[in-house]
Amino acid sequence: MAGKLKKYTQEEFNVMERNEYGRKICPSGDYTDIKIFPAKCVFEDNNAFGNEISFDEGCEFGSNCEFGHHCSFGQNCIFEHFSVFGDECVFWGLCEFGNNCTFNDHYDFGYGCDFGYDCTFGNECDFGTNCTFGNDCTFGNECHFANECQFSDGCTLNVYCTFGEDCEFSEGCKVEKNIVLLDFLKFEGFGSESRCTYFFKHPEGIYVRCGCFAGTIEEFRNKVQKTHKSNNYAQGYLKIADLAEWQFNDKQQKQLNDPCVISDMWTQISYCRSGLDIILVRNYITNAYIDGDKKHDLFKALFEKEKEVKYFK
User: Fold this and answer.
1) Among 17, 69, 170, 289, which one is least packed by beta carbons within 10 Å?
2) Cα–Cα distance for residue pair 309/313, rounded to 1 Å
3) What does the alpha-carbon distance between residue 142 and residue 161 come to, in Å, rounded to a whole number?
4) pLDDT of 309
């Protein structure tokens, strides 16, 4: 992109004026020769920036901006759609990102960052508390998420990602590349390495990740007994496996007996207005803990609603 843009020198940048709100207005261009940008710079669409650039807080960037490696950004920066970033950039808290942004490996994001849909992240990215992600974002291996992060529909996370407390996942999210996640539990401090053990509830059962092990809960129990026999480590691992099964089943039973869940399903069917609505509700019903007869009735009603939607299309 840089070769097609006007290249600005430091002197030209210095004389760019600030508006009545104190924001420095910067036209589209190639800013690769400039290393330090003050607070509240506002860039139009289509800009190129170099490596090891530092931006102060409150900067705003239009769409289709490209950033080099090892850049740092202050708090409350705003990025529009289709931004592309190099390796190992650092963002302080409360930054906002548009849709279809691309991030490479080893990023550090502060608390409260907000990302649009279809953003792509590389390996070993670190996210602070209360970060939120739009639909269909994808993450590389070994990303770390602090407490209370929220993932919208269809996000996909590769292997060995870690999560803080109270993280929330919406419909169709996947972990370990292809495990459709319904719920998860994390236990800390077990085993000879005092590591974290994750139990992921999915439609076919429970998937476990612990250190280098990844597999079903039955495979986990067999591995524990083979490795630790009947020592204290084995007793601890087997107890948390039992506890995970009990807690998932308890949640399932409560949801089965909760009329509010069924009522919400009927409401969602009545609100369907498009083929996409039908697909989303079908997945909602498929993954919900509902007994067979009720699920059959819901699918039957959804089928009739689908015919109605197609008729009025």
Assistant:
1) 17
2) 6
3) 4
4) 76
Asked which of 239-243, 254-258, 294-298 is least confident by mean pLDDT, the reply is 254-258
Residue 124 CA to residue 136 CA, distance in Å, equals 19
Contact 226, 218 (CB under 8 A): no
Which of 218, 294, 226 lies closest to 257 in space, CA to CA? Answer: 294
Residue 233, H or E segment:
helix 232-256
What residues form DSSP beta bridges with 133?
115, 151
For the chain, what is the mean pLDDT? 89
Burial string for 147-173 (b: 16+ CB within 10 Å, else e) reads ebbbbbbbbbbbebbebeeebebebbb
Q: Which residues contact 166 (CB under 8 A, 6 or more apart)?
A: 147, 148
Q: Distance (Å, rounded) from C-alpha 268 to C-alpha 16?
A: 52
The token pair at 20 is 């009545």
Rounded distance, CA 93 to CA 220, Å? 38
Q: With contact defined as beta carbons under 8 Å apart, do 165 and 187 qualify?
A: no
The residue type of 163 is F
Enter the pTM of the model: 0.75
| Separation between Cα atoms, residue 299 and residue 285, nearest integer Å | 8
**In angstroms, what CA-CA distances link 180 with 43, 176, 185, 236, 264?**
40, 9, 15, 27, 22
Is the Cβ–Cβ distance between 79 and 99 less than 8 Å? no
CA atoms within 13 A on the CB side of 271: 11
Q: Give residue limits of the domains in the chain.
A: 182-257, 258-312
Can you give the pLDDT at residue 105?
94
